[in-house]
Design brief:
The chain has 11 helices and 13 strands. The chain is an alpha/beta fold. It comes from Longimycelium tulufanense.
């Protein structure tokens, strides 16, 4: 395994920088392909100092660059994408990067006969679920340019599987959180906002009764899932990565109150709220990848609070979970 090389698009982002050390532990060499718009140059420099990581500062929209740098690689991890909130503000750029970028990476992988391509898809492809837990075979109803591109990416992978024999796994990430995440991350900014209020001695303010929920999955578990997908004997399918637990915003507030260690009671803002719930069916991840989550939300949130310096993560995010469809974070 020591001679195998992974091309990792978007590898300088939040999740990627948790995956790369695991790849190094398993003997891989890593080429990070990232335009560094949101990448962490200092952390990449630390990894490059090992002699087994290199950075290609480039954009997935340039198909020639993607093709050239993939030469000599055995595996590909494709994370590069425009985030969900930016995709709604600028659909043109979102389609350009997320759709064209997907195709450039997948076509090159098929041409180079890559052994396995792991794609960062998203639970956002489901839209508003009709039932819980959300299973990979459920109806898909993506509602934003980001979500639509993620679903189209899965379809493109199937095309290259049929046409060129490309081996792939699309990981549908639920609500990823953990150390190193930017405070503006769309679906988990509520965590940072609650923590900022609690550290100021203020109670979290919750719209409605706090019944809206998400499936929060720690980045350390996500990273393990990515490596498992890269090495799995079975492939050519989407796989959920979540905990299977839907944590309501009211429960999240209580967990964070305990983690911060303050004596406050959440305040509820009476109003009509669209109650949206999320929970992943993770049976396929267990069966195909031999993977299951190991970090409970209580332990994960407590660790996140410990690692976040007081006053450094204040954000004007809303006091409620977002109402737009399903979760994701890829960088």
């Amino acid at each position: 395994m020591s001679s195998r090389t992974v091309l990792f698009t978007g590898g300088a982002g939040f999740i990627g920088l948790h995956v790369v050390p695991l790849l190094l532990e398993r003997g891989y060499r890593v080429r990070i392909f990232d335009n560094m718009f949101r990448g962490d140059r200092d952390r990449v420099a630390e990894l490059a100092a090992t002699g087994r990581v290199e950075l290609i500062d480039q954009d997935v929209r340039y198909g020639g660059a993607v093709y050239r740098v993939m030469r000599g690689c055995d595996h590909v991890i494709h994370f590069a994408a425009v985030s969900i909130n930016k995709s709604q503000a600028d659909p043109y750029e979102s389609i350009d990067i997320n759709m064209v970028g997907n195709h450039n990476v997948f076509a090159a992988a098929a041409e180079h006969r890559i052994r396995r391509l792991v794609y960062a898809s998203s639970a956002s492809v489901y839209g508003e679920p009709r039932k819980l837990p959300m299973h990979e075979d459920d109806e898909l109803n993506p509602l934003t340019p980001y979500c639509i591109a993620k679903r189209a990416g899965e379809d493109l992978l199937r095309f290259y599987q049929r046409q060129r024999g490309l081996s792939w796994i699309a990981l549908r990430f639920f609500n990823v959180y953990g150390p190193g995440q930017k405070p503006t991350a769309y679906y988990t900014s509520v965590i940072n906002h609650f923590v900022a209020r609690l550290r100021n001695g203020q109670p979290p303010v919750i719209d409605g009764r706090g019944e809206q929920s998400m499936d929060f999955i720690h980045v350390r578990d996500i990273a393990r899932g990515v490596v498992a997908a890269l090495e799995s004997e079975r492939g050519n399918m989407p796989i959920n990565l979540g905990t299977g637990v839907d944590t309501s915003v009211a429960q999240l507030a209580k967990i964070l109150i305990d983690a911060v260690g303050v004596d406050v009671t959440p305040e509820f803002n009476p109003r009509d709220v669209l109650v949206s719930r999320r929970a992943a069916d993770i049976r396929r991840a267990r069966e195909v990848l031999g993977w299951q989550p190991t970090v409970s939300i209580e332990d994960g949130m407590a660790d996140l609070v410990r690692r976040t310096p007081a006053g450094s993560r204040r954000t004007p995010a809303p006091d409620r979970l977002p109402r737009t469809p399903a979760p994701s974070s890829t960088s």
